[in-house]
Every structure is written in structure tokens, then in C-alpha cells.
Amino acid sequence: MVVIADVRARAARTIPVGLTAAATAVVLGALVAASTVDAKACEYVPVHRILASAGGVYKMSDGRELKATKVDVGGCTTMPSLPTGLAYPNTNSNYTVVSHENDAMCVTGTGRDGSMPTYKGFQAIVVESNGFKFSADLVLEDIDAQPVDNPANGWRETMSSLGMSGGAVVRPTMTTKPGSLVAVQQFRVPGASLKQVGFPASDLLIDGAAYNSWTETKNCPFMDDPNGQCKAFVSYADPIDRLLIIYSITQKSANDPNAAAFFSEVTLACGCQCGEKAAVPNTVVPIDGKPGKCRTESNTSPSYACDFLGSKWCEMKKTTKWLMTGSGDGACTQVPSSISKPVSDFKPSREFSRVPEP
Asked: What pTM value is reported for the model?
């Protein structure tokens, strides 16, 4: 909830001394608007809820629709007692399970022998959107190893993600925390495996997060990894319309053919259905070399605003803008702001439904 009194108090600390009353009102209005945007709850979607949705289609609070499917790629199957796509530890959780039960078909190789680790067989979840693209973030969690005395004898997990936009592959940014037991490394994905999940059927090299320590074999406790030792952070800054999540192992176990990991809810950027609005004729820009001084220039860039009849999908982007103080000498001040930036057309289909599972 936005407390206007709090915003006004912040504005009192932010607005420079000497602004005219009219300029002060404009700045205060901008601060209130920016604070409202900051407080807006963006969409976050646990993927298990998409999979469990009635009719196979999950409707978000803003009306957009998603669907998801699970795929056993290359003969890699899931653990029956803790299957891929399950909510964990209960249906109120934001976490979704990915697991395997067939070591022989799920092994990528570690790459320690100089070969390229390969996602030939893996557990996959594919999420698709209905007529829009979205920026997204998620966390791949519990990427760990079987706690055995000899690291060469235990399973070691790996996870990855890939996106598509209009049929073209989109690679995310994938990072780990300092001191992590997980490292980002390259994996090959054969075209035949990609074809099974609806991606272009040509071999790709992609980043994957894999358990990397050969001196410590740690089974990270679920939801008790505050230092992020067994996590990888995935971010799609470029909007996508299809999201792929991959789970496999780099090495099989000598005595345990089963393992499982988890991933967080998918957080979608704030946005709205939008349309083009009348452009602001002039914009205020700072003058190079003259701090606190601005000039106006003609604006030719189109502007967009939320519009339930609009044909675009916009995401909210935080920014700043310059405002003249009204003193007449070009003095200006910078205030927080936001813009609606179109990221795709918005053309939902009435035929949107669950992808048939093999």
C-alpha cells in the first residue's frame, strides 16, 4: 500500500529549495506516481499451478494466460514418488519439483575428460504464453550432489533454461553467488532433444548450472541455503513467449538412481495491455557541461499508456525525467519516473490450450 503522507515526506527531502509552487506540485505528483508504480505487485507464477490449472490454462490476475507441459526428453524419466511438476512441500509453495529416476538416460557427462557435457536426455517443463511476450526471472535451486565419501561415486545435478521469442532462441543471463558450489558452464543440446520440446531442431551450445566442487559433496537442505551455495539465478531481460526449464545429472550414482531439485516461481515484469497515446510535443533534456541546467527540444518518440483496447503489451520501466523549476533561467531538477514500454503485440488466441503431452 502506498501511504501518500510518506511520499509527501520523501518529497520534502527530495524537492530542491526555491521551486515555484507550480513546479513543486508537478514534482510531488511525479514522486507519488513513481511510488505507486514501485508498490505495484508484479506477477509471480509458481509453475506447478500452471500445470495443475483447470483446462490446462492458467489465467493471471491481469487477464493474461499461460500453459505448461512436462516432457521426458531422450528417455529420461521422472521419479514417481516425487514427480517433475509437483508442488513442494505443499500446494501453497512457490517451488516446483524436477526429478529423475533413470540414471542411464539422464547423464550429461561432467566434462572433466575434455568432452562437452550434453543435455541429450533430461526432464523438461515448457511454459508458453498466449499472444504476448514477457521478461522473467527465476531461481534454480537445490543443484547439489549425493553426499558420498568419493565424489566420483555420487550423482551430481545440473539445471538450465532457454527461451524463445517468435520462433528464435533467446538465451538468458545465468549467474551464481560468490562461494557457490555451482558453476555456470557450457552444454551441448542436440537438435533432436530440442525438437521434443518445441524448439528449433538444430544443435545448440547453452549455459547450464552444474554442481562443480570435487572436494565437497553437499546435499543442500531444501529452503535452507541462505548463502546460495546450490542456486543459479536466471534472468530474461529480452522478452520471450516460451520458457524451457531443463533438469538432468552430470554423473550417475553407484547406488542411488533417483534425485530431485526445485525451481522458484517465475516472476514476470510489471506491465499492462497498452496503446499508443498522443506524444508529448516537447521534452526537457539536461545541457552537457551545465549541471542543473536544461533546455527543451522537440519530441518525436511515440508514447504508450495502459489501454484495455490496446494492441500491444507494455512493461513498466523505471526511469528518471527532468523538470524545469520555473525560475526562467533553465534551472531544472531530476525526479523518478516510469514509462510504459511496448515489448510485443498483444494478440491472445481463443484456441489457446494445453500442449498435448507425449
From this structure: 0.82
